[in-house]
Amino acid sequence: MKIAIIIFQILLGCFVFAQHPNVFKEQVIQGQAQGTTYLIRCFSNQLILKKDIDSILNSIDLSLSIYNPNSLISTFNKTDTRAIQMDPHMATVVRKSVEIHKVTNGYFDITVLPLIKLWGFGPDGFKQNPTTEAISSILPLVGMRNLKIKAKKIMKNNPGVSIDLNGIAQGYSVDVLARYLEDNDVQHYLIELGGEIKVKGAKDSGQWQIAIQRPPSRASAPSDSLTYILNLKDKAVTTSGTYENKRMVSNRYVSHHINPLTGYPIENVTVSATVIANTTMEADALDNYFVYLNPQQAVEFADKLKGIEVYLIYFENNSFKEAFSKGFKNYIYN
């Protein structure tokens, strides 16, 4: 089931015009980064240059990309490296990762990279399905106990330990771009990077609105296009799903979502989780955990968190179903 996030522009009349003078100039910046595409739409009298956006994203890649052999994280992941000084990008993301690790009871774990590689979802690609023995031998390398973080220094206690920040880095990148726009006096914008979205203010003739695709119900034809339109202001929204990156193993599909506690891909009825949060980094980090939990657990978890809402699609009794946290429907326009 492929879940799409689509950007909608819906006119809302004079109320928005009163808040958003149409003297602002619209700018649209598009490009490629982090193995995907990005889109920025903003309204301001300040000129935002594509080369500056690309420079910011490149600096993040040089810090956090496991696909760049010259990045800071790739240097740390080498077996002959035991410690490095983190730059501001890595320090921010690692500290947030430690926080999310605690909140998710150890599920969000940046030391999971050896297992991701073992299952063939890492930079080296697929080679063969892992044996039980291979998984057992790798598990001791996984766990935040293998890392020590002191000020701006990160250390590992075993040369085989390696980290992966992909579960949070793209959301962080969106937040960095948002901060850059605001520092340049841009208060009305939409940023989308690889499906991770953050909005602030409004467009010239209406609020920013985001549409998320819903599954067809039993009574609907498969070709029916069903969506929820989200009315968002000064919020971030991300979606994660088991459909994104999967492979057939022993006559069944396995997802790239690896449980760091067991060493195996997660198996759950949840197909996707869409998260609304104040920051894209937080939404990005939590959406994977919501996919791991069963729908009831996910809703209960979201309802305990301040500023977090979740919409789930899950497959049960041969049909797709939906679940919502308490406040999610407050953002639905239609």
Question: Topology of this structure?
Answer:
Elements: E1 5-9, H1 14-19, E2 25-33, E3 36-44, H2 50-64, H3 72-77, E4 83-85, H4 88-103, H5 113-118, H6 132-138, E5 147-150, E6 153-156, H7 166-183, E7 188-193, E8 196-200, E9 208-214, E10 226-231, E11 235-241, E12 246-249, E13 252-255, E14 270-277, H8 280-292, H9 295-304, E15 309-316, E16 319-324
Helix pairs in contact: 2-7, 4-8, 7-8, 8-9
EC number: 2.7.1.180
Organism: Sphingobacterium olei
Protein name: FAD:protein FMN transferase
Keywords:
single chain, 334 residues, T-fold, 9 helices, 28% strand
The low-confidence runs, each spanning 5 or more residues with pLDDT under 50, are: 1-21, 218-225
Strand order of the largest sheet: 2-3-7-8-11-14-15-16
Taking Cα atoms only, what radius of gyration do you get, to the nearest Å?
A: 21 Å
CATH architecture of the largest domain: Roll
Give the SSE order as H and E letters: EHEEHHEHHHEEHEEEEEEEEHHEE
* Shape, principal axes of CA atoms: globular
Fourth CATH level, the homologous superfamily of the largest domain? ApbE-like domains
Question: Counting H and I runs of at least 4 residues, what is the number of helices?
Answer: 9
Number of domains: 2
Tell me the name of the CATH class of the largest domain: Alpha Beta
DSSP summary, beta strand count = 16
Query: Which percent range fits the helix content?
Result: 25-40%
Largest sheet: 8 strands, antiparallel
Topology-level CATH name of the largest domain:
T-fold
- Described by its quaternary structure, the protein is single chain
